[in-house]
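Example 233.
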Amino acid sequence: MENKMIFLNHKMNLNAKEIKDYLNSFPYHNNVVICPSTIYIPYFLRKDSKIGIQNIAADNSGSFTGEVSAMQAKSLGVSYAIIGHSERRANYLETDDIVNQKVLKALENHINVVLCIGEEKRKAGFEKIIKNQIKKALINVSNFEHIYIAYEPVWAIGTGLTPTNEQIKKTVSLIKETVKKEFEFVNIKVLYGGSVNDNNIEALNQIDNLDGYLIGGASLDIEKVKKIIKVVL
Ligand code: PGA
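Predicted structure in complex with 2-phosphoglycolic acid:
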């Protein structure tokens, strides 16, 4: 598929020297969105860069020590926000309701959303969890063309494990069908995330209903990023 997108999620990694080295050989590309630690975002600002923030506040401004808002991110040149990552849901107690507020705040500020969903364990009935996450996160949303849903099974994040291509394809279809049924939006863009790397990307890229990837660990290594870009774009 043309126009696949690759999102690079650095999480809380790299020190000041390491990010400068990374920056020096970073392969800017129209279909690659870099999501560094928030403190490093200004380093990536260029005419041809696409930048994402790993989290945003549910408010635009005010007394929220330590938070960064969608309004602020947009004013700097950030165009995407990762929202509802499983690490935020688990470690910072982000509920579906908070995720929904953040999604609406991002869209209100013309920031594209990467909404993360995914089951903790792949067991019978996991589809219901996926459907519920989608329904709750997208309440009152109208501009679906600015949304990517990242299917990230929690058990696949940072573990080296991935679902089979068949399992991913089926879940991506389920996500697209759910958005169609619940919100009457056809063909929502869906990413896969969870242990994507330079070794498995060729196989994963055979899945024909994916619109891109959200990559954590492997995104820290420029050589791996280049290999992945070569396969996907
Ligand atoms: P991973 O992380 O590629 O290291 O599994 C993906 C993510 O958490 O977005």
